[in-house]
Each structure stands twice: as C-alpha cells, then as structure tokens.
Design a protein that fits this description.
Largest sheet: 3 strands, antiparallel
Number of domains: 2
CATH class of the largest domain: Mainly Alpha
Number of strands: 3
Distance between the termini: 50 Å
Shape: elongated
Strand content: under 5%
CATH topology of the largest domain: Four Helix Bundle (Hemerythrin (Met), subunit A)
CATH superfamily of the largest domain: GntR ligand-binding domain-like
Structural class: mainly alpha
C-alpha cells in the first residue's frame, strides 16, 4: 500500500511551529510571508496555508492590514487557558481512576520515576518532556479524543512561554511534589482527590507562569 505524501504546507507548518517553540520567532514577531517563502524555496501558496494552520492553533495571530504575528500570551489569556485545562485534565484524572487497567497505572508509575530522576539531575529539558508525557498518558487512558484535541491545542499556546516557569526558584521541586500526590491518588483510584489535585497542580502552574 502506497501512502500519500505529506502536503507541503504541513511540512512548512511544522518547520514554522518548531521555530516558534524554540523562540527563533519570539512572541510578537512579524511573520514575513514573502521572505520566508524565498528562504524555504517555495511559493507563497503553501506558506500562506501553513500560516493559516498555525493561526487556527493559536500560535499565530492575524492582524487586520498588518499581516501575521507570533501570538503574545497575555495574563488574561494565561488565566483563561489554565482554567480550562484545570477543568479538563481534572476530569481526565477522574475518568482514569475508573477505567485504567493495572498495566496503565504501572505505566504512569514508571513515567513518574523518570520524572523523579530528571528532577534529581536538574535536567529541565528532560523534566519538561517527561512531565508532558505523564499528562499525555493520563489523557490517553481517559480515551476521550475531543478532550485530547482541546488540551493539545491549548498546550501548544502555552509552549510559547511555559518552559521558563520551571526554571523559577522552587517550581521544579513543587511540581514534582504535586505529581507525586496526583500519582498516589490515581493509584488509589480516588476520583475526587485526583481531580482536585490535578486542578490545583495546573493552577499552581498558572501562578508560576506569571
């Protein structure tokens, strides 16, 4: 069976997305469609389509008669995003306590062990990556694709600034403690407590991001 090749605009969107997350393009930067098309050696059509994709994800903001800009996340945006994430990811934890297999709970336990090791090594990049895997695993177990899609899109916007929050004094240690408590509640299949702890964890993340 021959797989259809990936559309060019998707490849361009991924390249732009990577540049935004690495802060090669910082929040507020103008996205020069014409210059980038020349730089990438493509026509403006796939570049324009790629920009539309990132605009739909919230990573790029289109301004009337001014063009495309990397989204700047305001304090109000952060508050609203974390509020929605707390509700959704708290609900995901509640569902996990009801439907997770023992193997799935063991997988969460294994991920948390890796998180502990990365914290002990003060490896922020690895901690950030495993932290994301831990949250992704909870959503995977929950098996609600609509919830996953919303969470995934919101977390893309948070990646515009969120990594810096873990480097703030004491935040990595606090985040690790919060994860320990969440894991314990999940392993105990305590729906109310796991939901409450996940909500508190995300709202603490909001405070650290300010």
């Amino acid at each position: 069976m021959t797989l259809n090749p990936r559309p060019l605009y998707e490849e361009v969107a991924e390249r732009l997305r990577t540049s935004i997350f690495s802060h090669e393009f910082a929040p507020g930067d103008w996205v020069d469609e014409q210059a980038l098309a020349i730089q990438y050696g493509i026509s403006r059509t796939p570049m324009r389509e790629a920009i539309k994709v990132l605009a739909a994800e919230g990573l790029i903001t289109m301004k009337m008669r001014r063009g495309a800009y990397v989204t700047e996340v305001s304090k109000s945006d952060l508050s609203q995003i974390f509020t929605v994430l707390a509700l959704l990811e708290g609900q995901a934890c509640r569902e996990v306590t009801k439907i997770a297999t023992e193997k799935e709970l063991e997988d969460l336990d294994s991920l948390h062990l890796k998180l502990e090791r990365s914290a002990a090594d003060r490896d922020l990049d690895l901690f950030f990556a495993i932290n994301q895997q831990f949250h992704d695993k909870i959503q995977e177990i929950c098996a609600n694709p609509w919830m996953q899609r919303v969470i995934h899109d919101l977390r893309k916007v948070l990646k515009l600034q969120r990594r810096d929050s873990l480097s703030k004094r004491g935040r990595l240690e606090s985040s690790l403690i919060e994860h320990r408590k969440i894991l314990s509640a999940l392993l105990a299949r305590d729906a109310d407590l796991s939901e409450k702890l996940m909500k508190e964890h995300l709202l603490q993340g909001q405070l650290a991001a300010k």
